[in-house]
Amino acid sequence: QGPVCTNLGLKPGQRLTVKGKIAPNAKSFVMNLGKDATLLGLHFNPRFDAHGDVNTIVCNSKKVEEWGAEHRETVFPFQKGGTAEITFGVNQNDVTVHLPGHQFTFPNRLNLSVFDYFDTQGDFTLQSLSWE
């Protein structure tokens, strides 16, 4: 478990940019964005080789203990031992995930009006966090 941020106050029209280093022997890492640890609007989980997925980004939402349907992206711009920069753009109805050379959106299934919570887990070391 990496750093946990609370009271972010991210609203539609704002962006959160995360920079960090991926472990040389990485299997997967996670970034969670939501209201708190129990209400996750976006669970972002790049998997190098975990849970039966290879080089796949799995996204989901979580309401208390209940996970939603998994969404998979096959574009995988991450390298073991490399650095990563990911920007999450908060919109009214979804979150746009900006990756190097690729972007996709994930619906705001919990209808969160504000994203206050962010954490990282797994084989990723957070170097900087910025929002605008």
Description:
Keywords: Lectin. This is Galectin. It comes from Polioptila caerulea (Blue-grey gnatcatcher). GO terms for molecular function: lactose binding; laminin binding. By secondary structure, the chain is mainly beta. It contains no helices and 12 strands. Strands 1, 3, 4, 5, 6, 7 and 11 form a 7-stranded antiparallel beta sheet that branches.
CATH architecture term = Sandwich
* Largest β-sheet summary: 7 strands, antiparallel
Count, helices: 0
Q: What integer value in Å does the Rg equal?
A: 13 Å
The computed structural class is mainly beta
By CATH reckoning, the class would read: Mainly Beta
Low-pLDDT stretches are none
Q: Which fold name is given in CATH as the topology?
A: Jelly Rolls
The H-and-E topology, N to C, reads as EEEEEEEEEEEE
Number of domains: 1
Helix percentage range: under 10%
From the N-terminal CA to the C-terminal CA, the straight-line distance is 25 Å
What is the count of β-strands?
A: 12
Beta-strand content bin = over 45%
The shape is: globular
Mean pLDDT: 97
Protein name: Galectin
Pfam families: Gal-bind_lectin
Keywords: Lectin
GO molecular function, one term: laminin binding
How does the SSE layout of this entry go?
Layout: E1 4-5, E2 15-22, E3 29-34, E4 39-50, E5 53-63, E6 66-67, E7 71-73, E8 83-90, E9 94-99, E10 102-107, E11 117-122, E12 124-131
Antiparallel strand pairs: 1-11, 2-8, 2-12, 3-4, 3-11, 4-5, 5-6, 5-7, 8-9, 9-10
